[in-house]
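User: what does the whole thing look like in 3D?
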Amino acid sequence: MKAQLRTRVTTGIGIFYLSSILFFLYAPILVMAAMSFNASEFYQLPFQFSTQWYERMWENEAILSAAWRSIWIAIVTTVFATALGTAASVALWRYDFPGKRILQVLLFPPIAIPWLITGTAMLIFFFGVGIGRGTPAVILGHVALALPYVIVVVTARLATFDRTLEEAARSLGARPWMVTRRVMLPWIAPGVIAGALFAFAVSFDQFVISYFLSEPGDSTLPVLIYTAIRKGFTPEINAISTIIIAVSMVVMLTAARFTKFGGEK
Amino acid sequence: MSEVRVNNIVKTYKTARALDDVTLTFPDGGFFGLLGPSGSGKTTLLRTIAGFVEPDTGSVTIGDRPVVNVPVEAREIGMVFQNYALFPNMTVADNVDFGLRVRGVTGNDAKRRVAEALELVQLGPLGKRYPHELSGGQRQRVAMARAIAPRPRVLLLDEPLSALDKSLRVDMQIELKRIQREVGITTIFVTHDQEEALTLSDRIGILKGGRLVREGRPQEVYADPGDTFTARFLGEANVFDGKPEGSLLELLGGARVTRPEKATRIAVRPEHMTVSTVEPEGPNVLRAELRQRIFAGAMGTCVLEWQGQPVKAIARQEEFDGLPEKGAVWLSWSDRHARALTVD
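Assistant: Here's the predicted 3D structure for the full assembly of 609 residues, as structure tokens:
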């Protein structure tokens, strides 16, 4: 009886805890999404459905150009980060070389270091080596940030790759490149796709690095939103933010599906 | 199809000698079984022939071609792995086709050869299935077909049947033998299952601690194992030590037995032991204590004790039925069944 009661109490606390987290996490987002469809500019209730903010956003040149900029920077970042990250993962998996452990360990702190600090460091460094501010700097920064994510995800998938498959392919006469292309890549493809989606999300949602490294006027979407908020908040920002969240959620959920969060179903 | 030779192969891992000066010839078109307990180096030897292991010293030739410096993919081998290692993202037919494709065999020629290989392993209609849709035995056949399709010079099997359950394993042994005979390819296989090695092989090699201790035809090696390890590893053996007394050997307790080849240690297989309640004529007779009788159909096993040493005898049913449950009995064997063993 006593044990049963205890289980019930712990379960109760657990449910309360989980609901609180979900509530505080999603309630503001839901409010924002709802307000993007509210006719009032000052968040007045009662709620009146309207798509005017989406229409206004669609006519706002600054928002649109920033959105396109964000998208193509994210795509370029994704291509580079995925290619480099996958190659690095395969190399780390296949070869033993001096300093391999150190390299592996050094890959992870960038995930944990605050972006503000990484951004400052990059800004100083890029000025130091003469790259300065601008699109190349933004892309370099994004690739550097996204790379560890790709490596983590692809490496997790590679860990499930059966080495004897590689041996079997070689015994059948396949050269190393053939083994990689025909046997290994098909196996790690879900990891590579998930890594690519992570890279896209990291770049698309990136604010600090973009803010520090882009030239004034060449803002990405998050930077534009930040600037807009400082000038005065309009529900147009709610509209574009809602779109960004929707896109990010789709991307992350797809990534989660492909990685199955590191394990088979 | 080629003869395979390994000469003076030495392979050391850190401090352990995995292979210690192994020299062996695998005859052209033969089925050679490499047998030994785990850690004996049998798998290392197979992987050395395949090219996955680079020996410290020694040479490997496939046909007339020295291959020590040739990478795996250029050795023209076929290999079947313990877990089969089928490509999970490819159909059965694509798995079999893989070795042909990477060699540039395509089109109708490839199609025909894939069909032939699948026919050979009796999986003709399953080409479009994926490996996860197959049973263990079917996967094993696919692995064989895939290894054979590119017509390798030698087929290497790494414990190919160990993942199957007992009854399926016996069926697959017969299948494996049939396939090997049909293709006529030099085959080397590794197993720790003595019975499997005796059933399948034309020749066997027994490894222990990285050394080749015995090599020969299975019947030959079983009948005359030569050393204590082989005698005990390949089947069961009762081993007796004694002092030479002229042409005889005096065992503990004074019993005198025939002495083959001036040996001081002899082995007698359990199936060559006779247990009786009356004292038989001649030498090779021991007074022993019957401890247990285990009935097992046509044959029965008697567990005995002689001078503190356990002895095993296998008796036919009629002989077995005439014995008491326990008690003093006579144990004997004929001269021709005593085998000399080296003492090391």
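In plain terms: Residues 206 and 222 of chain A are 7 Å apart (CA to CA). Residues 2-36 of chain A form the longest helix (35 residues).
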